[in-house]
User: Fold this.
Amino acid sequence: MAKRSKSELVPSTMQAKFAEITVITDDFCQEHLNEEYAELSRQLTAALCRKRPSPLVTGKASSWACGIVHALGMVNFLSDPAQTPYMTMSELYKLFGVSASSGGSKSKQVREIMNMHQLDPEWCLPSNLEKNPLAWLISVNGYIIDARQVPREIQEEAFRRGLIPSLPANSMAVR
Assistant:
């Protein structure tokens, strides 16, 4: 699993656009979601700013901000009432003041450019990472297995290589 950059550094030519979008996402996340969404939104905005060419150079900042939060919401099941925080996508569009077609279109662009998908460990909320099954899949001798089910020494090697997010605290593996 390739590790995404958690950097918020952006090229000098994109600093103004980054600031414009992140002011919107930060305010939105602080008011309606949480700090984890705000942090991931900044990192995703920075990653999009570093793309060559950056898709953010055209379009309204509010539409991009909505698309970025929506894309993260898709990965993290924001519209599932069993999740906290929870918000419907129509409510998200309304609160951003953008149409569903504009917000959805920007979200789709973001997800395609960044190869994002539901349960994507790279864009999962940190508080949900431990229970995300995709974060724990590793390949051992050509077999895809759950790293929480293997001996500790394999877990340690997988963690050292950056293949799993942490060492399982309560490993079910036989020692």
Summary: Residues 12-125 form a domain with the Cyclin A; domain 1 fold (CATH 1.10.472). The chain has two domains: 12-125, 132-175. The chain has a mean pLDDT of 91.
